[in-house]
Amino acid sequence: MEIVNKVAQSGLVTIDLEDFYSEGERVLFDIKDLLFQGMILREKDLREFVAKEDWSNYQNKFVAIICSVDAVIPTWAYMLLTIHLEPYAKKIVFGDLKTLEINLFTESLSKLKVEDYKDARIVIKGCGKLPVPTFAYVEVTRLLRPVAKSIMYGEPCSTVPLYKK
């Protein structure tokens, strides 16, 4: 008796969100370390810091800029840091590492050719080795629902049906 791979014959299209993961080191730049007495950002101190910092340490890294303590940080301070990071960093965002990851996946998923999935039976792969945020699953579902015939979650051999046109 011949063994038949029914998954291969099912016509299911698998999307692995790990394919949309942006490779590179993630770095959190926390302004709290630059505050005077842990509370106040002084312009003179910040300008001295940016003049002395070796910004090449951020070469090809994804950087999230934040202040993790309750302090009033003027908008221009984030802008000044961005000006110095921009020649080196792959990407800079305002927020924490979770915000950075959401931005990276948003950018990567925006390149998805949604029209290629018209009337497709799609399985969004569930488990993997890379940290894929829940946001990415929500976003890919939002993008594909208008065109897909069906959307499932999991593995082709064991899926959770989510949507059927």
Summarize the structure.
The chain is an alpha/beta fold.
Number of contiguous helices: 5
Mean pLDDT, rounded to whole units?
Answer: 92
Helicity, in percent?
A: 25-40%
Q: What are the secondary-structure elements, in order, as H or E?
A: HEEHEHEHEHEE
Residue windows where pLDDT falls under 50 for at least 5 positions = 3-9
Structural class: alpha/beta
Q: How much of the residues is beta strand, in percent?
A: 15-25%
Number of domains: 2
Shape: elongated
- Major sheet attributes: 4 strands, mixed
The strand line-up of the biggest sheet is: 1-5-6-7
- Number-wise, the strands total 7
- From the N-terminal CA to the C-terminal CA, the straight-line distance is 36 Å
- Rounded to the nearest angstrom, the radius of gyration is 22 Å
Features:
165 residues; disordered N terminus; alpha/beta; 2 domains; three-stranded parallel β-sheet; elongated; 7 strands
Provide the fold topology.
Elements: H1 6-9, E1 12-15, E2 26-30, H2 43-52, E3 62-66, H3 75-85, E4 91-94, H4 97-109, E5 121-125, H5 134-144, E6 150-155, E7 158-164
Parallel strand pairs: 1-5, 2-3, 3-4, 5-6
Antiparallel strand pairs: 6-7
Helix pairs in contact: 4-5
Give a description of the structure.
30% of the residues lie in helices and 22% in strands. It is α/β, with parallel strands linked by helices and 165 residues long. The protein has two domains: 6-22 and 104-164, no CATH class; 26-89, no CATH class. Strands 1-5-6-7 form a four-stranded mixed beta sheet. The protein has a three-stranded parallel beta sheet with strand order 2-3-4, with helices on both faces. The longest helix has 13 residues, at 97-109. The chain is elongated, with a radius of gyration of 22 Å.
